[in-house]
Amino acid sequence: MKKSLILLNIIVIALLFSCKNNENAEVKKEPRTRNQPKSVAYQFENAKEWLSINIKDSKKLRIAAAVNRTDKENFAQMDSVIVPVDLTGDMECYLPFPMNVPFLKDIDKIIYFSYPTQTFATYENGELIYTGPTNMGRKQDQTPTGLFYANWKAEETTSTFNDEWDLRWNFNVENLLGVGWHQYSLPGYPASHACMRLQEKDARYLYDWADQWILTGKDKVLVKGTPVIVFGSYDFDAPKPWLQLIEDPKALDISENEMENQTAPFLKLILAEQENRTAKG
Question: What sign has the CA pseudo-torsion 107, 112, 116, 119?
Fold first, then answer.
């Protein structure tokens, strides 16, 4: 009987130790692997000639469109475009956000929109999860910058500027001003009425990935949604910034230090709202 009890205790201890090791393994999760190109360099191409060769390669076309901050439809209408020489890498290898930002390790989810580079990115605990191109507010209707939160979303809404404009996968971030991100045509430069235009695939991804606010029965905000930081400024009178990539492939790179500088003023607010979501969400 004593031998049986001893054996049972050994089994229980072994199981507990095994579970503890599994928990530690989950905490020490390795960053996901990415396909890196051998080198990142860019060259000018005639859009129609390049498309005649690569039109059936959806990955190459998606990267080329993103590099020119446009979509497939508008890319086909362009004359000269810039295209990476090596298109074997993953999307994030060609856009400016850093792969990892240790300063963000305590933030479960956050979205960034960079005005000067016309790109967006999502991070989970400091790791870049998803990135793509955007076309933000034009000179006379610039996108407001600072800290916002994802509010409400709708698969399709009508623009407040023109009731003939249908906005798909719309996610509001500034309720009073009617500003948010959504799918819409990307001509390859800031062209919106303050919103952040996205390719449809990207808009759908953010629509599913980001968390909405939670309201009380009296329509007061109980829990705020995913934090969104819009930062930087755009020189509307200069050539498109991404054309600099021809001479310097790192010209638009956003450093980890810049990410920290953009986030630090809002960190306490973000973490407080995150704790509130955990408690009440």
Answer: positive
Element (H, E) at 71: none
Strand partners, 27: none
Q: Would you tell me how many other CB atoms lie within 10 Å of the CB of residue 124? A: 15
CA atoms within 13 A on the CB side of 72: 12
The CB-side HSE value for 25 (13 A sphere, CA atoms) comes to 6
Which stretches of 40-109 are assigned E, i.e. beta strand? Answer: 42-46, 80-84
DSSP-assigned letter for residue 140:
G
Nearest CA to 243 out of 39, 38, 44, 40 is that of 44
pLDDT tens profile 150-163: 999 999 776 555 55
Residue 172 CA to residue 149 CA, distance in Å, equals 8
**What are the strands, taking DSSP E only, across 48-183?**
80-84, 110-114, 119-124, 127-133, 146-149, 153-158, 166-174, 179-183
Secondary structure (DSSP) of 201-226? HHHHHHHHHSPPPEE-TTS-EEE--S
% of residues, the chain, pLDDT over 70: 86
Residue 57 CB contacts under 8 Å (≥ 6 apart), including other chains:
none
Q: What is the pLDDT of residues 161-176, one digit of tens each?
A: 555 567 899 999 998 8
Q: Which CATH number fits domain 42-280: 1.50.10.10, 2.40.440.10, 3.40.50.720, 3.20.20.150?
A: 2.40.440.10
Of these ranges, 13-17, 28-32, 60-64, the one predicted with the greatest mean pLDDT is: 60-64
Average pLDDT, the chain: 89
Two structure tokens written together for 86: 């090596």
Q: Which of 225, 227, 229 is nearest to 261 (CA)?
A: 229
